[in-house]
Amino acid sequence: xxxxxDLTKAYGSVTAVDxxxxxxxxxxxxxxxxxxxxxxxxxxxxLTGYMPATSGTARIAGFDVFNDSLEVRRRIGxxxxxxxxxxxxxxxxxxxxxxxxxxxxxxxxxGLVSDALKKTNIEDRRTHLIKRLSRGYKQRVGLAQALVHxxxxxxxxxxxxxxxxxxxxxxxxxxKALAGDHTIILSTHILPEVSMTCDRVVIINKGKIAAVDxxxxxxxxxxxxxxxxxEAQAPEKPLRDxxxxxxxxxxxxxQSARPDGLLSxxxxxxxxxxxxxxxxxxxxxxxxxxxxxxxxxLSLEDIFLxxxxxxxTHAEPSN
Amino acid sequence: xxxxTQSRPIEGAKKTMHSFYAIYRKEMRQYxxxxxxxVVIGLFLFLAALFFNLILxxxxxxxxxxxxxxxxxxxxxxxxxxxxxxxxxxxxxxTLLLFIVPILTMGLYSEERKRGTMELLMTSPISETExxxxxxxxxxxxxAIMLIPTLSYLIFMFVRSEPVPPWxxxxxxxxxxxxxxxxxxxLGSFISSLTENQLIAALFTFAAFLFxxxxxxxxxxxxxxxxxxxxxxxxxxxxxxxxxxxxxxxxIYYATFIFLFVFLTVRSVDSMRWRRA
Lengths: 319, 277
Hints:
The structure holds 2 protein chains of 2 kinds. By secondary structure, chain A is of the alpha/beta class. Chain A contains 11 helices and 14 strands.
């Protein structure tokens, strides 16, 4: 549905988006994850035809976003970073206006406006002036605006910003419900959002793609580079030395001074190696007492940090 | 997609009409939900009525004075009072335009840019031309609505005059105001599309108006440059209309002026995509 090839956008000497390529299949939810200023908004603005790319191509439903901009714009709904609302309009009038400029035929308009109000749960604010609404409601009006014409592709720039936890959950459910009929790209810098809603994740940093995969794969990919937690009764220094000697082990950290006299340590193993048995063996043969040995899976948070930190060695596109 | 390929031209034209009307309708509603329209119209009508009264009584007094003089010196008075009133009144209207048009146009684009709603318009299936024409015609409509009540002052004067002056004068005068207003609105919209700040838009619009006004200084100068400058002045052509003269060259002048600035606005809106950094 969406094909992006070598997309680049430079503002003068600053390259905001640097040879970004990815595809989104029909009905899929793609999460765009990255720290602020990573190039998420720029990429989305190019996809929606708001600004042209410096080089590279992007196609939506087979139409080039630059050359067939009108055809593309007919098929997308877009929620920019700040909801593009007119403060002096009522919610209903505003959605009606948006439906009009999206070429919705007159006979379908009232129905679609009602649907959008219902889906975003703002029916009770139908006749309110937008300027009187709270931030969360404005954000939901913005969301309603992106759905009102029932577009094939929905592009959401940080859709849950400004919402309270309950509303965030509602919006996530809404986005999940929209997938299937609609192809969705959403950007966020909130990690749980991606693991909860998206089928696939593009991690972007400094304009470059750091990784593209499913949230599960990204997690398991680094899980194979395992982290093990050990609890044992042992002298601190010898334990540290013993663990460090295990082939493939690195980043050994020992925390002492626990009230029960136990030491807890974390060890990271190299990719694809299970070092748990070796740790157990080492501790037992040294005559210490092993209380606990467990493998800790890296959260998406860890992966994200690892991929977006400057000296990250893993920062290779996985595709 | 097959849907779209069928009967595309007709559907396309219909859609263009739709989107254009959507913008027009939105702008008109915007004008009337915000206090601006009411304040501007109210102020305009108040000033227009006040000055109409002053002008009328001034001309009448002047005529009575001349009549008295003629009784003394025995010269029959030959004054076309309605024409004098009209010329002074239309002159006044043009001065009011100088202040009112910047207020009508200042927010047209700068507000959209500031609020981020330009992003909505520019990612919707609607062309820059539709956006610009919708906005321009909405501002022109509001301006026409403002003018309608002033028509009643002149009609009143016309029917009470003896003999009743030719109605052609009235039609020509109002055609002049609408064309002058349209030109200034086009220029004002263009300036609004250049900035995100309403106040800056208003000030620059006012300055630009003064500039196209004073080009008229060339009128009394001799030589080619003076004549060219005078032809370029918006006010020069307007004066012909207030005398009841509808000159083709004036019509061409205003049509060109409006077209030029509407076109420049379309280009300016289009260039926002590239300008943004």
